[in-house]
Amino acid sequence: MILRVDANLKQEIIVITADKARLCLRDAVDNMERSKAWQTPAGILITILVVFPVSTFQDFLGISKDTWKALFVFAALFFVGWLIRCLLKIRRSPTVEQIVNRLRAADSTQPPPLPTL
Q1: Is the separation of the CB atoms in 99 and 24 below 8 Å?
Q2: What is the reported pTM?
Q3: How many Å apart are CA 59 and CA 14, to the nearest integer?
């Protein structure tokens, strides 16, 4: 036997055009994809860091072994920079609440009229 039923059905309705919703959602999807972008530079950097100490460079393709070693160092520095850039972009990515607030923001100060049921 049910003795009591409590209902808390307060809702907030956001009225928005399809174009604005598409733009906000496209930006959100782009940000989600960017949040995975750190994996590429991290994987390459780890490979370079593991291989570099155990490698013995040799003259190859007319390039001296010292030049090959310098190229590996520059490549490692490049991938460190790329990884840092990707991680900073993740920090600046909007949260779900910020995306909802962007959807909620209206061009005018007047709230749109509520639809009649």
Answers
A1: yes
A2: 0.57
A3: 66
